[in-house]
Amino acid sequence: MSRPLRTVTVNGSYSTPSKTGALIELITDQIASTREIEVRRIEVSTLGPGLTSALAREDLSAEVRAEVAAVEDADLVIAGTPVFRGSYTGLFKHFFDFVDQYALANKPVMLVATGGSDRHALVIEHELRPLFGFFQAATVPVGIYASAGDFDRTTLLAPETYARIEIAVRDIVPVLDALTAAPATAAVPSGPGRPEGAGATALH
Questions:
Q1: Using the 8-state DSSP alphabet, how is residue 58 labeled?
Q2: CA proximity to 95, closest of 133, 145, 54
Q3: Number of CB atoms found within 10 A of residue 139's CB
Q4: Helix (H) or strand (E) holding 3
Q5: Where is 40: in which H helix or E strand?
Q6: Domains of the chain by range and CATH?
Q7: 119: exposed, middle or buried (C-beta count within 10 Å: 0-12, 13-18, 19+)?
Q8: Quick one: which of 133, 132, 111 has its CA closest to 122?
Q9: What gap in Å lies between CA 103 and CA 69, rounded to an integer?
Q10: 6 in Cβ contact with 38 (< 8 Å)
Q11: Does the pLDDT at position 191 exceed 60?
């Protein structure tokens, strides 16, 4: 018996509402049109000193620790950020600095970015994919990028971006189905002794 897909989105934008948030929402809506999902949305700009003042995981507030744990326990992570100075935002990186090194191993992660122009489109390949490569995450091959000219405020106008969203979701449907076909697996202890890829399904 299938269960809802536990989906956690992380938005690195400093503003609310935001173009990045709108793009992430379009992706979750597309997934929800194909299967039952539970979505938890994390806006890093709202986490405040409970995140920004922390130097170690034990320094995080209880609220932020719960958000980090939600990312680690998700079936699917959708990670999105606007481009600042050619890379992801500082708060976005600071948040993921507290995610356990092995918690995302083989976990499907969709990469999303927005920027001022098409010149920033390669941020997904040059910045986001290497970051999640460190975690050994199974990043979805099709990244979703949109520039400021593709929006009317936070409304996406570009049909080609809608098409990329459909392709990206279609590509991971078999993995999502496998993740939700059985009850959730028990938590696996983190740390160096954790088997690589434990508790997750790989993308091929």
A1: G
A2: 54
A3: 24
A4: none
A5: strand 37-43
A6: 5-180 (3.40.50.360)
A7: exposed
A8: 111
A9: 9
A10: yes
A11: no
| DSSP conformation letters of 141-187 | SS-EEEEGGGEETTEE--HHHHHHHHHHHHHHHHHHHHHHSSPPPPP
Task: Specify whether the CB–CB gap between 146 and 23 falls below 8 A.
Answer: yes
pLDDT tens-place string over residues 86-134: 999 999 999 999 999 999 999 999 999 999 998 899 999 999 999 999 9
Token look-up 């719960």 returns 66
Strand bridging mode 37-43 / 76-82 = unpaired
| The residue to which tokens 């990028």 are assigned | 145
What phi, psi does 11 have (nearest 5°)? -110, 115
For residues 198 and 61, the model is more confident at: 61
Q: Quick one: which of 142, 110, 123, 147 has its CA closest to 11?
A: 110
Alpha helices for 33-158 (secondary structure H):
49-52, 62-73, 90-96, 123, 129-134
- CA neighbours closer than 13 Å in the CB half-sphere of residue 185: 14
pTM of the model: 0.87
